[in-house]
Amino acid sequence: MPIRRVEVYTVELPYRKPFTISMGTSVSSTDVVVKLIDDEGRIGWGEASPSRRVTGESEDTILAAMNALVPLIIKEDPMNVERIEEKLSKAILGNTAAKLALEMAAFDLKGKILGVRVRDLLGGYTDRVETDFTIGIMPPEEMASDAVKHVESGFRILKLKVGTDVNEDIARVKAVRDAVGGGVRIRIDANQGWSLKQAKKALSEMARYDVELAEQPLRWYDLEGMAELTRTSPIPIMADESVHSARDALLVAEMGAADYINIKLTKAGGLLEARRIAAVSEAAGIPNMIGCMMEGGLSITAAVHFATATRNVVTTDLDSDISLKEDFVEGGARCEGGFRILPEGPGLGELRVREGRLKLRAVYEEGRESTTPL
Fold it and tell me: Catalytic residue numbers?
């Protein structure tokens, strides 16, 4: 069952509409997809969604990283996922999205060999989780209109992107709350967009609109400011960009710099490091959310497996694939009434990668690497 062949692809994922956060506007993403094949022809799939702003990666850096990472796992036994993760983590610093794709594919392959779901390999806790739907920064009336549409489609939790002008951000939250009424949970995400002074003003004003949590209001490195907000804010504080690893989670816990920690598989570099973050968080009494970048249904399905396996994950933000014009995956973790539900089947479950949408970039085999024209 050793891994004998690895194929690396890219795929363009245009969004249904431009998506704006405090750090900029995006209209599409280019993800890297990997396919592991063992000596019996079984396949494991993984996905990397680069983020220049959060992990410092791009399509090109991930493809370059694969040249260093993939040869290390050729001939490795996919049953030994922890060994594979160790080799990847020691090979190069950072490059967490690239490492995630390979580790995800190894988990998928291991699950298929054993005939069990990734959720069960990770422990197992539940079969479905409720997700929010994220609304990008727009004028207040447009955000309110979008909010009503998503509530009507079944979502009972909304995440509002903010982090620009404080008064406009307050108006956005007010408009959405007025539009959806009191039966819908609202959380906000500033994506590091405010200063400490701005955050104090914004959170003090937004509290009247029953905001349940505020995600990453300050710069990722300002843990002292995050700790002050955590002590004084009327709205609970969540760390996102401040936590990429279990070591980061430990520092946040020691400093009292958050009430919640957002785990993202892309930031963590894999499900195993995500599990370590959850363990540190749980030991410190800090609940977790699991979130996403702008990835497709493959990576979202992996995140749902992690969420349904992990008791300390109390809420999720797993909606990016819903915002795509066209995914490259059919099946996977479906969304019904705001709940993500695991597919049946071993590994990541019953899903089909539409290989016709993928562009082959490289093929790695024992003793040989060939790269298609870029």
Answer: 161, 264
Number of residues that make up the chain: 374
Decide if 288 contacts 260 (C-beta within 8 A): yes
Torsion of CA 298, 301, 303, 308, to 10 degrees: -170
Q: What is the domain extent for residue 171?
A: 120-351
The answer to whether the beta carbons of residues 155 and 141 sit under 8 Å apart is: no
Share the mean pLDDT of the chain: 96
Both 127 and 80 in one domain: the answer is: no
DSSP state of 346: S
17 φ, ψ (degrees, to nearest 5): -155, 160
Nearest to 186 by CA among 220, 218, 143, 219: 143
Count: domains in the chain: 2
Evaluate if residue 155 carries a pLDDT over 60. yes
Whole-Å CA distances, 213 to 4, 65, 91, 242, 261: 46, 36, 37, 16, 11
What does pTM read for this prediction?
A: 0.96
